[in-house]
């Protein structure tokens, strides 16, 4: 009988790594198959599930899509039994027309979502952050249009680049923040929008939409934007 020596043992041990290697390759293959499987989403079934859940909770279908820049409906809309009178834009158009706000209230879609811009002269006196008492009702009407949306809402305050000079505010930045906050408080206290789904920010003079080189342009830059956040932005908000 041949004697089992150390060289035979080394030979056997050197071949055992193949078993571990083959197991690792098999596991990696399974891992990538699982990744591929879960990354393949049936969009039609997803929309059907979303519609079903919407009807279950309140009978309303909500559709929040991706920004394309082509139309409001490409970004965000509400439908109720395909009745176009219930879309956000149609309700806003009616509100603007009934209250002669054509030069004071505008809306658009951008990468943030659905944006309603309110000229500062509609809501505030010069250098003040207090909402005019006679325009509080306008804010409440706008809030009632928006409160059914499941998306987060961000109220953004903006000013022009003319330095503020009064004892109440030290900077345009501070003025813009307080204005946005006061709008949020009205929407929360009077419209009952969930305070966990709305926030206020102020950008002061630092995000103008046009150059601050004329009185007309400075007036355009002084505004409050009420933004229904696009679904892409929702994931950055807390308490999802």
UniProtKB/TrEMBL annotation:
The chain crosses the membrane at residues 21-39. PROSITE patterns: OMPA_2 (PS51123). It is a single-pass membrane protein. Keywords: Cell membrane, Cell projection, Cilium, Flagellum, Membrane, Transmembrane, Transmembrane helix. One of its GO terms (cellular component) is plasma membrane. Pfam families: MotB_plug, OmpA. The keyword Cell membrane applies. CDD domains: OmpA_C-like. Gene3D superfamilies: OmpA-like domain. Residues 111-232 form the OmpA-like domain. It is found in: Cell membrane. The keyword Ribosomal protein does not apply. Belongs to the MotB family. This is Flagellar motor protein. It comes from Thermoanaerobacterium thermosaccharolyticum M0795.
């Amino acid at each position: 009988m041949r004697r089992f020596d150390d060289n035979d043992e080394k030979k056997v041990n050197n071949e055992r790594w193949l078993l571990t290697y083959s197991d690792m390759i098999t596991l990696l293959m399974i891992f990538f198959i699982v990744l591929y499987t879960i990354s393949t989403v049936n969009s039609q079934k997803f929309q059907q599930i979303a519609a079903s859940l919407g009807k279950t909770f309140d009978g309303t279908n909500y559709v929040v899509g991706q920004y394309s820049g082509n139309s409001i409906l490409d970004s965000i809309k509400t439908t109720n039994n395909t009745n176009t009178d219930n879309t956000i834009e149609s309700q806003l158009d009616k509100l603007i027309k009934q209250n002669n706000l054509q030069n004071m209230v505008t809306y658009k879609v951008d990468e943030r979502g659905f944006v309603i811009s309110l000229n500062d002269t509609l809501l505030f006196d010069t250098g003040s952050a207090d909402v005019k008492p006679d325009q509080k009702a306008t804010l409440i009407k706008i809030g009632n249009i928006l409160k059914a949306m499941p998306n987060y809402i961000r109220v953004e305050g903006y000013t022009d680049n003319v330095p503020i000079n009064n004892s109440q505010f030290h900077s345009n930045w501070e003025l813009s923040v307080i204005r946005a906050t006061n709008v949020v408080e009205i929407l929360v206290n009077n419209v009952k929008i969930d305070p966990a789904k709305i926030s206020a920010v102020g950008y002061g003079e630092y995000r103008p939409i046009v150059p601050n080189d004329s009185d007309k342009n400075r007036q355009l830059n002084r505004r409050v934007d009420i933004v229904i956040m696009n679904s892409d932005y929702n994931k950055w908000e807390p308490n999802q």
